What does this fold into?
Amino acid sequence: VYGVPNGMRNGFYRMTQDAAAEQFNWPSTLNPDYTPAKDAELARLYGGRTAPGYIHRVLGQHGAPEHAVFNLDDYLACVDPALDAPSFIVCEGGPFEAPVEVPGGAYYLGCDLGYARDPSEFVVFRADEPHFVNVLRVRLEGVNFARQARIIEELDAAYAFRRIGIDAGNNGRAVAHELMSLGGDWGYKIEAIDFGASARLVPLPNGDAQRIPAKTFMTGLLQRRMAERTLVFPRLPEREEQYASHTYAVGVFGHILYNKGNDHLIDADRCALYARYLDTHDIDTRGINTVPTDPGFGIGWF
It folds into this structure.
């Protein structure tokens, strides 16, 4: 049995506690290319050398238990093995052609962008309410920012997206700005989402403001859709693996800390659901909170 600990006391954990089995621990530090600079980078990525992500993914130890973000049964109930949803992998210099004949409907694009070290994941969803259906996935490996922007343009020409959600890390922000500079309706269509920002909800009845971390809010959109069985995914082993292993810990001030690493498809899904949310709520995406069409809650960025 080979695996990466995630802190959960599951079947894998119990196997590693079997005294009758021969045990091996291969931390990242055994890699001949592992350097103090790489260690410092990973420590920053995971939030310190005592953080669960560092202990699990760098040291290869079980560490403190974390909690599963998603109910795997809910995820599996949303998988339709018969759904015909192409999945492409595009490398730098490799060909890509967007679909030619696309059925009518309201389409949304979610993007988690990487470049040198991490892949980029693009996911296309069609709103067929009450369902939100994943109809295409494009994974980009080592593709430069300019071409990533061009591929988004090609996809938009095919699907005429109502909204596009892009994870506004350093990579995503650069691509979002390039696309918005094209003019037309790109400035409205593109939503660069800062996962580290706070979401501002409609005020409480007494006028007090409500705030919730953006990543927590978008994760809640996914969790609610899956619980309601209104998300439809194709069978995709990489996505199932990510949803099954995505965990969180609770910080010293009660903040939810999601593990970082193999979650690119999940982040792209988060962005697509948020794009749909923006399109169905009367929200000024330039930061002014307005009355949502759904009397529940609305958010704006600040």
